[in-house]
Design brief:
Elements (H helix, E strand, L loop, with lengths): L1 H7 L6 E6 L3 E3 L3 E9 L5 E18 L2 E13 L4 E3 L4 E9 L15 E9 L6 E9 L2 H12 L2 E10 L9 E9 L6 E11 L2 E10 L3 H9 L4 E8 L8 H13 L1
Parallel strand pairs: 2-9
Antiparallel strand pairs: 1-3, 3-7, 4-5, 4-6, 4-8, 8-9, 10-11, 11-12, 12-13, 13-14
Amino acid sequence: MLGKLLSSIGIGAATVDTILDPPHAPLGGRLSGTVRVRGGQVEQDVSAIDLQLVTALVKEVDGKKVPGTGVVATARAGSAFRINPGESKELPFQMEVPLHTPVTAPGGRPPTRLLTSLAVAAALDPSDADPVEVDPAQVQIDTHNAMLALGFRLYKLDVEHRPRWQGGAGFVQEWEFRPDRGGWRYDEVEIVFQPSGGGFELLIQLDRAARGLGGLLLEAAGMDESWRRIQLPGGLKGPGQAAIERQLAALMQG
């Protein structure tokens, strides 16, 4: 009786540990691994093992930017079972990594992680959290390289809370580029990869650098930013770096 009471508050209860194999996944592919459950001091009934792929994001509350979390995808491993004291169970799982999943920047910390929780009746749900590196699609790599070739550098990747953004995910990852050399009339270019037909289209925001009094007035009026759209055929592979570079150059020179 005492053991059941203690397990209800997490003392001597079952534990869970998720092993990802491998610890990264391709965008649009699958994340796989094994959920390891070990029994505690008393037997417990587990009704479900819930998996959530979540992303860290920034949201605006009362005019201030605060950290938040968005759910990217969900899955379940196995079915209901009873775990006896000291018993170990391993349950394999797979889950899709949808195209709206934020990818990991080169050399950066993964914005996504996998949360695993056991649904245990009348007890605290044991849980585990694991960072997940999401590899960018080839079309994203080519777009990044095209921007480098045009004289821009990737300044940051942000995941922004956008509840009304098209697609329904509730958030969007913005790739922010800044010029690395002169010759451009934009001081910032933001790119969003919008899922479309098994691939992407580019949504591009051009932030025009203020030049002279006219530019300052334009910027002060909030009219210095504009959104453009570029179609990218070829699915996740895309049309290649050269084709993307031509389209980006034509857009920014227009």
